[in-house]
Write a structure and sequence with these properties.
It comes from Alicyclobacillus fodiniaquatilis. This is Helix-turn-helix domain-containing protein. Keywords: DNA-binding, Phosphoprotein, Transcription, Transcription regulation. InterPro entries: CheY-like_superfamily, Homeodomain-like_sf, HTH_AraC, HTH_AraC-typ_CS, Sig_transdc_resp-reg_receiver. The structure is a single chain. This protein is α/β, with parallel strands linked by helices. The strands form two sheets. The protein has a five-stranded parallel beta sheet with strand order 2-1-3-4-5, with helices on both faces. Helix 6 packs across helix 7, helix 12 runs antiparallel to helix 13 and helix 13 runs antiparallel to helix 16. It starts with a strand and ends with a helix.
């Protein structure tokens, strides 16, 4: 495929300038134009050669990125639209993904590698769409078969039973994809296309059915199939699927369940009814899985789950109270006593997750262990393996018990140097030389006395100074960035967002709205 033609649409001039100066040729692309709003961008579609890819901000004057995308998709559905957004625009980005946008990128963390990756994704999507136009009839027929089986599992009437049994006898494989909500819209068409193309080019006799969003059923009708995962013919297909997913859709994992041979439609229904139990088995055990990066493949049927009874709860609470009196005890308890207790009877997964949520909330209240409690709770509830949840909690516990051990005049001198030279390119080595200490020793006593690292203190001072300049001056955002010693616009925006919860532009808009309201 020839070089991609890229149109960049952004109303923040410093960011637009940075994007314009990217090495587009090294990405296999060329910049065919820029615009500061959607209306100006739309004019580029009157040219003889329209863009292949539009990289656009969401919130812009005159015509925003969402309206621009709708106009593009209505008239030029093959053009790939990639959104530039900040965290506060996530709901707009998700709406746009549903309406046909290819992807979205976070402005404050944007880097050349992400742009290169999204352009590669656009190139593959364009090629795939062009190739698939030759296969529309076959795909429609395949989807019709999927719909018939999906409805049959719910009704099981006589006619439906016959339709299912047309695919039997067969070996079943159930696949569930587990991924962030924002990626779900991308996953379904990608995985469906993958299966369709793989089946077309292989000798395997497999029917693929989309059961629910991101849940698939594969029926293998080949004879003499071994139940063991590593010898199952679908195993290699799933390996290729995971490899493709890892490249196209980051942060995704999947698990697959290989069942026993099905002879009747009722066998298939019974297999599907056991899926929740298999999900629970995956949560607890490592014994049945063959891991391919983030993929687990299970075979066999588990025992039934046990609800947590009062005596079970009393037993583990007693162990918790005995062990969890300090940070080290909490880590050891989660990794050993708690994990062994939960696995012993494979308790109900939702009850175990809720127990962990309750405990981390208590430990935050008593010990202040976690910097981002809400995110940790979300990760616990979303975890598909017990050890993943335990490891995530332990990894987020702070072991920093250092206390202030007295004052050093050199630390106060270093703080003054930082405050008086924020606009300079300060380093630990430079400041240490100024106060006549080694960098290692200054770093250690600085953290002991202030509770912050040298770089953390310097960054906080720069952000606080930036906030003051945004409140009290009319300087542009990029001018403020230079004034506080972080001249890179994108990096400054990202750091400002990490410390304040908003980008500099959002912060300044909020101040303006507050002034208008008070006025």
């Amino acid at each position: 495929m020839q070089s991609l033609r890229v149109l960049v649409v952004e109303d923040e001039q410093p960011l637009l300038q940075e994007l314009s100066e990217l090495p587009w040729e090294s990405f296999g692309a060329s910049l065919c134009g820029t615009a500061s709003n959607g209306l100006d961008a739309w004019c580029h579609f009157d040219a003889p050669q329209i863009p292949d890819v539009v990289l656009t901000d969401i919130t812009m004057p005159i015509m925003d990125g969402i309206e621009l995308m709708h106009k593009i998709k209505q008239k030029y559905p093959h053009v790939q639209v990639v959104l530039l957004t900040c965290h506060l625009d996530f709901h707009y980005a998700q709406e746009a993904i549903q309406a046909g946008a290819l992807d979205y990128l976070i402005k404050i963390s944007l880097c050349d590698k992400e742009i290169e990756q999204v352009l590669d994704k656009a190139r593959k999507t364009l090629l795939r769409e062009r190739a698939h136009t030759r296969l529309l009839w076959e795909k429609e027929l395949h989807q019709l078969q999927s719909a018939r089986l999906s409805g049959a599992l719910q009704e099981m009437q006589l006619e439906t039973k016959g339709k299912i049994e047309a695919h039997l006898p067969a070996m079943p494989c159930y696949i569930m994809l587990h991924l962030p909500h924002a990626s779900m819209q991308m996953a379904e068409p990608f995985v469906s296309d993958f299966f369709f193309e793989e089946i077309q080019r292989t000798d395997l006799s497999i029917d693929v059915f989309l059961m629910r969003k991101n849940e698939y059923l594969l029926l293998t009708r080949d004879k003499e199939i071994n139940i063991h995962a590593t010898e199952h013919p679908i195993f290699h297909l799933l390996q290729r699927l995971q490899a493709a997913i890892t490249v196209e859709i980051p942060h995704i994992c999947s698990f697959s369940v290989l069942g026993s041979r099905l002879e009747t439609a009722f066998d298939l229904v019974q297999f599907m009814q056991c899926i929740p139990e298999l999900q629970r088995a995956l949560f607890y055990t490592d014994e049945w899985q063959h891991t391919v990066q983030h993929q687990a493949i299970l075979s066999g049927m588990p025992q039934a789950a046990h609800p947590i009874e009062q005596q079970d709860l009393l037993h583990i609470e007693t162990k918790k109270q005995k062990n969890c009196t300090h940070v080290g005890g909490i880590k050891h308890f989660l990794q050993h006593e708690f994990t062994e207790w939960a696995r012993s009877d494979e308790f109900d997964v939702s009850q175990v997750k809720q127990m962990l949520v309750t405990w981390v909330t208590e430990w935050q209240r008593d010990f202040h262990l976690f910097a981002h409690l809400e995110a940790i709770i979300e990760d616990i509830l979303a975890s598909i393996k017990l050890m993943d949840a335990v490891r995530m909690i332990n990894d987020n516990i702070s072991m920093d018990d250092l206390q202030s051990i007295g004052g050093h005049i050199e630390v106060r001198h270093a703080q003054r140097i930082i405050l008086e030279n924020l606009a300079s390119n300060l380093t630990l080595e430079f400041v240490a030389a100024k106060v006549s200490l080694s960098p290692t020793y200054l770093s250690r006593i600085f953290r002991q006395e202030t509770g912050e690292t040298f770089n953390g203190y310097m960054t906080r001072c720069r952000i606080e100074s930036a906030m003051k300049l945004l409140r009290t001056t009319n300087l542009m955002v990029y001018e403020v960035a230079v004034a506080v010693g972080i001249p890179n616009y994108r990096y400054f925006s990202r750091v400002f967002r990490q410390w304040t919860g908003s980008t500099p532009k959002e912060y300044k808009r909020g101040l303006a709205k507050q002034c208008a309201y008070n006025g």
